[in-house]
């Protein structure tokens, strides 16, 4: 039944609030519809009362009718949704839903390009193993069996061994994200990817240039390398930045007055996709680094050299603000520095280690010199200090020993 409340404004105008209760929803909250009736000017009290009651009856009838229609629509929609879910449970395979989810990621742009490409690279093996299984029937046991199979000999085409624990986790992330999407769609009640066990792989010892090795290599590079590679490897050795970060640098990222360089993009490569630009690895990877004056001079020299090359190329030149480019201005392929350094070290009979070894060298030397772990973590662009501590535990331990030995020596002085 409708309830009526009289209201009088500050100006003395009278109106009436008509409220109708339609029961309670599933959460126990009362469902109320309301309207305001304002009598016309000059109406007598009895006429107002009569019209007010009429409005209340009409509004109550209309509110109940509208609510019944709403319930009917909701019931029809729920029935349709239940039918769709029931159909999906009996027909949609993991492959079909995974393709749907990947298409959604391409449109939504929620994943970084590198992350999306990594997900796509997991399709072939995943589809071969579990692609034809209904999403509703994909169990923990079947997923565990697939993840375990990845560690078997022969799965890694390069080494002939099994895939690393890190790669196993990439596959599980792909499957888990698809199954989380299935849960959102109502096809499953829980994600079966929880508590999956990985086969531990033998961790390779990090390749780190010693101080003498780094000095010898940089001396040879400074003497014999072309200007672009001389700059590239000095940047890695003096800043500890990642390869993709260095290749993504543009001249507008350099403040030549303050000798500060800002990292805000990366240049990467993925087979079947090509060279592409992406955002840095994490939010913490967006950072600014101080660059030695000698490196600033190399950057200025390289820019001048490229400007002269652009004149020679004419219409063949591709405008690009990147520091590291090809002969006609296009961004340098991410594999080029690695291949060049390998050939250079073989020719010069110098120790060759992966490009990431320069990053390990910078971190290890900084920690060994007593630089605060947090400062080193910020320099490297790690999202957490614990990451730095885990990766460079030996260097941190050595720094602690050196510090404590120094204190001990002071205490032992008579």
The run of helices and strands is EEEHHHHHHHHHEEEEEHHHHHH
> Structural class, from helix and strand content?
mainly alpha
Helical amount among residues, as a percent range?
40-55%
In the predicted model, the low-confidence regions spanning at least 5 consecutive residues are none
Largest sheet: 3 strands, antiparallel
Percentage of β-strand residues: 5-15%
Number of E-state strands: 8
Identify the strand order in the major beta sheet. Answer: 1-2-3
Q: Can you count the helices?
A: 15
Q: Determine the mean pLDDT.
A: 91
Q: Quick one: overall form?
A: elongated
How big is the Rg? 34 Å
What is the terminal-to-terminal distance?
97 Å
Keywords, separated by commas or semicolons:
414 residues, mainly alpha
Question: Could you characterize the architecture of this molecule?
Answer:
54% of the residues lie in helices and 11% in strands. It has helices at 45-91, 94-108, 113-121, 123-130, 140-149, 165-185, 211-224, 227-239, 243-247, 293-313, 336-348, 356-368, 373-380, 385-391, 393-412; strands at residues 3-8, 14-24, 30-37, 254-255, 260-263, 266-270, 274-278, 287-290. It has a 3-stranded antiparallel beta sheet. Strand 4 and strand 5 form a beta hairpin. Helix 7 runs antiparallel to helix 8 (227-239) and helix 8 (227-239) packs across helix 12 (356-368). The radius of gyration is 34 Å and the shape is elongated.
In short:
The protein has helices spanning 45-91, 94-108, 113-121, 123-130, 140-149, 165-185, 211-224, 227-239, 243-247, 293-313, 336-348, 356-368, 373-380, 385-391, 393-412, and strands at residues 3-8, 14-24, 30-37, 254-255, 260-263, 266-270, 274-278, 287-290. It has 414 residues and is mainly α. Strand 4 and strand 5 (260-263) form a beta hairpin.
